[in-house]
Design a protein that fits this description.
- There is one protein chain.
- The chain is α+β, with helices and mostly antiparallel strands.
- Helices cover about 40% and strands about 15% of the residues.
- The protein contains three helices and two strands; from the N terminus they run βαβαα.
- The chain has a two-stranded parallel sheet.
- Helix 1 (about 15-25) links the parallel strand 1 and strand 2 (about 30-35).
Amino acid sequence: MERLGYERYVSQGGDWGPIVSHAMGRQAPVGLLGIHVNMPATVPPNVAKALNNSEPVPSGLSDTEKAAFASLDAF
């Protein structure tokens, strides 16, 4: 954003935007005042951790949840 001349800015995401906005929030670049998303990802913390770290399917998931995990992992 500095290259565009902005010292402070916010990020809003819909459709694919939440992925970008959430990444910006985690990276916390200088000048980012906040994010707003209207399509939040909602997965349990242990699933999010496994997906982010390329870990195997967390224990204790049902067959349906394992299938959903596999879809998220492929996505």
